[in-house]
Amino acid sequence: MNPQLILYSFLTYTFLLFVISWFTSRKSNNESFFVGNRKSPWFVVAYGMVGASLSGVTFISVPGWVGDTQFSYMMVVFGYVLGYIAIATILLPMYYRLRLTSIYSYLEQRLGFWSHKTGAFYFLISRIIGASFRMFLVINVLQIFVFDNYHVPFALTSVIFMLLILLYTFKGGIKTIVWTDTLQTTFMLGAVVFSLVIIVQGLGLSFSEIIGKVFDSDYSRIVYTDWQDPKNFIKQFFSGAFIAIVMTGLDQDMMQKNLSCKKLPDAQKNMITLSIVLVFVNLMFLFLGAALFIYAGSKGITIPALTDNLFPTIVLQHLGAVAGIVFIIGIISAAYSSADGALTALTTSFSIDLLRLDKLPYDEAKKIRLRKIVHLSMAALLILVIVAFSAINNEAVISKLFTIAGYTYGPLLGLFTFGLFTQRTLKDRWVPLIAILSPIICYIVSENSIQWFNGYRFGFELLILNGMLTFTGLFIMSNKKKY
Questions:
Q1: 361 CB-contact burial (10 Å; exposed 0-12 / middle 13-18 / buried 19+)
Q2: Does position 133 have pLDDT exceeding 90, yes or no?
Q3: Strand partners, 426
Q4: Residues 272 and 85: beta-carbon distance below 8 Å
Q5: Measured between alpha carbons, how far is 173 from 47 in angstroms, rounded to an integer?
Q6: Are residues 350 and 124 in contact, defined by beta-carbon separation less than 8 angstroms?
Q7: Cα 454 from chain centroid?
């Protein structure tokens, strides 16, 4: 596909986002940036969160992952539903009752100063790494198929991409993102459906025939019963539930959009609707992955060593210009949808949890200036991590993402669980040490599990172990006195 055509598609779509940003960011202040003045329509938030939940990782990595894990990821997705129900019934009521701007402020109210800072720190680490992984996927596609042709280095491509995101979120923040996410979700899902249509036509099959071909193939296997296998369906299901809880319910990025709704029932409707829609959307992505492998086999296309590149390779090199344009807009939508929210959430958490911007005795103008400085700094940090990741990427990003989440979100899971389900008083000064030791112990256990546990290999359930270790450490460093 012509690199200039890809570039023009990228710029046109970006211009459209700036138009939306201009309309939504007028008369914005810090409350608009952080919680959208708490006036976002729930159905707009719900629809936009589909794109934010999927991101470039789902768009590219999940279809390519089918070659190694088949449809076993669906058990993780089924677990998401349980996790989202827990968020809607346990976490959201608490967040709304306390009228939180940053959800980690709860930790200070319930557990203490060091618990608050530890929770915010682990969110910042988790989101910086996760957002960088997601953005790397898209930037890498643009680099390979566009900017390499102009001899633009990867680092400069990363700067350009992040600068564009920075500019359209700089003023409106979450107030803008709620609306741009709706556009991005539409283009992302449209790109998947269109790509499927083109692939099916290229195979000379009807939709009923391709459905039968996929589900008769080895790619459609969902249930793995071997307890030692990381893909075991029980481990996948419960891992999915806890992944949803920590990567949505304990994540400032995702909860910030929910907290912008007018009232609690609206946010709960948003969460339940999202859980149902994501089941069908993720199944569609997995089906697309199987179709891509079948298409590659029938056309003699070599499967890339890094299967994340399978979808872009087939679309951009074998399906024609129209399919390529739709794909590029879809992948850019996926990237923007996750990156803009992440950048805003990082700014919010750093400003509220670490700088205590809401408590500082400054006028509104000075607070806005400080928030903008934090926004710029977070963008620069993300660029550095993206460039660093480009030098070491050698496996499916979705696998890396969930593995990292097991280590970084585990302490958050333990902290919130202790706060919500016990009434014990915590010796707060010990929390940072516990939060450091728990991931270290998890890593040691994971690396030695085959020898220690008769061949058992940890998968994404490492997150649950990490949370349990953190909870245990907190329980030991507490007393029966009620808070």
A1: exposed
A2: no
A3: 478
A4: yes
A5: 18
A6: yes
A7: 34
Residues 72-81 have pLDDT tens digits of 889 999 999 9
Note the Cα 208 to chain centre separation in Å.
33
Give CA separation, 236 vs 188, 223, 240, 242, in Å: 26, 10, 6, 10
Say whether pLDDT at 90 is over 90: yes
Predicted confidence (pLDDT) per residue in 242-300, tens digit: 989 988 899 887 787 788 778 899 889 888 988 888 899 889 989 998 999 999 888 88
State the amino acid at position 317 in one-letter form.
Q
State the chain's mean pLDDT as an integer.
82
Angle ∠(153,377,440) on CA atoms, nearest 5: 90
pLDDT interval class at 304 (50, 70, 90): confident
pTM over cut 0.90 = no
Strand partners of residue 40: 261
pLDDT of the residue at 421:
92
Q: In 3-state terms, the chain is what percent helix, strand and coil (to 5)?
A: 80, 0, 20
- Phi first, then psi: give them for residue 455, nearest 5 degrees: 90, 0
The answer to whether residue 179 scores a pLDDT higher than 80 is no
The CATH architecture assigned to 3-391 reads: Up-down Bundle (1.20)
In this prediction, residue 386 carries a pLDDT of 85
CA distance 483 to 480: 9
Within 8 A by CB and 6+ apart from 245, the residues are 83, 86, 87, 91, 413
Burial letters 194-231, b for 16+ CB under 10 A, else e? bbbebbbebbebeeeebeebbeeeebbebebeeeebbb
Q: Across-strand partners of 232?
A: 224
Query: Quick one: 475 exposed, middle or buried, by C-beta within 10 A (0-12, 13-18, 19+)?
Result: middle
Residues in a beta bridge with 424: 482
What is the 3-class SS of 365-400, one letter each residue? Answer: HHHHHHHHHHHHHHHHHHHHHHHHHHCCCCCCHHHH
Q: How much is the average pLDDT of 227-250? A: 87
User: Rounded CA gap, 142 and 187, in Å?
Assistant: 17
Q: How far is CA 135 from CA 304, 427, 466, in A?
A: 20, 39, 26
Residue type (1 letter), 353: D
Q: Tokens 């009620």 identify what position?
A: 482
Residue 482 neighbours by CB distance under 10 Å: 8
At a CB cut-off of 8 Å and minimum separation 6, what does 163 contact? 379
pLDDT tens digits, 99-117: 888 899 999 999 999 999 9
Q: What is the reported pLDDT for 102?
A: 83
Distance CA 123, CA 353 (A): 11
